[in-house]
Design brief:
alpha/beta; Spore Coat Polysaccharide Biosynthesis Protein SpsA, Chain A; Jelly Rolls; six-stranded antiparallel sheet
Amino acid sequence: MSIVPVIMAGGSGTRLWPLSRAAHPKQFLRLHGEDTMLQATVKRLSGLDIQSSITICNEEHRFFVAEQLREIDKLGSIILEPVGRNTAPAIALAALTVKDDPLLLVLAADHVIQDEAAFNAAVVRAIPLAEAGKLVTFGIVPSEPDTGYGYIKRGNDFGEGFTVDEFAEKPSLEVAQGYISSGEYYWNSGMFLFRASSYIEELNKFRPDILEQCKASVMDVKADLDFLRINKETFESCPAESIDYAVMEKTSQAVVVSMDAGWSDIGSWSSLWDISEKDGDGNSTHGDVILHNTHNSYVKTDERLVAAIGVNDLVIVSTKDALMVAHKDSVQDVKIITANLKARSRREWELNHEVFRPWGKYDSIDSGDRYQVKRITVKPGAKLSVQMHHHRSEHWVVVSGTARVTNGESTFLLAENESTYIQAGIVHALENPGKVDLELIEVQTGLYLGEDDIVRFEDIYGRVTQ
């Protein structure tokens, strides 16, 4: 029976701030290896007999998903969730849109698997159980009494797995130690294998309200470029619920298959330190880092030099616009910082210094009262929307490449060292007609310089026009 991977690519990854932001979360970052976490998730399936994947993501991240999957030639289908409703509805969307009732291999896009052969072997062992109508969950063989994971208690032997005795919430350290000592508990990985029809049947038993809304949402699925759009108004009415609460903790069809494959959900900076290569002092360094008398620390910098002297057990992460220093025992509290930033409407909780768009990216170089400077990169063949700003004027200077510029009634080419001035209220557009990246400097001036001061008239990427 064929297997369709279902990649869950939602989530904000706030516990890995300041590298992971709401607009560019961890699943789209290169945190462990050369590939992004999404790309690594898809590429590790090459040893299995699978069909094209289904990736489920939100509207804001759709171009990340498409671009990164296209880079590895594994685009597949991309279902856009207009709002987040947790995993039970998301998986239902996939189950309702596939054909011929395949097995669905449900995976998170932000997990690390260090032993791909062991991962594939666990999936293969689970196939007969899923073909027989069971809902298989993969239990990670625990290496320590971790309080950051939920647990699954196994029951009686059942084929290559075990019946599920119970799901346990994240425990205290004392309780977790008891779990490990018993040898009967696994970490709950959040990975599953089952027939599409089996999941729909069990969801209908326990949460028919979720299934009803999901069915209504896919009644008029619309193709948009590389994406499948479901009905927004209907899906907004769908209850939000995880697959564990909605189905797995209630069904009698759940079985658990053990997996010992170097798994980590990279839920914190300390867990990333755990799986990273380290020097003789237990330090994991990335970027321009100098250490002296420092031990068991994780230090990462995007650009500037970071020096650490006489410290132990720290996480130090430096980006272009933020510096975070935390003790490894306190990294779970990073989410408190991001919540604080969000409550204060600070851009650092959502946006990186470097912001990616479907046409390329921009980097905020400098800003002050009534001005802002950006470095803009436009990919070959890409085009910004035809737009207008009410409150700001812009001056564009081409650094490299060729720009096709629309400035009011005129359209013309600009080469290196050439420029144009766009007055507030003038309709304009920017396109890269060349075969190499277009780099330019944009200087904005005006009373208001927010990103929401854009009136779009045309956009080739299907973004909302005004």
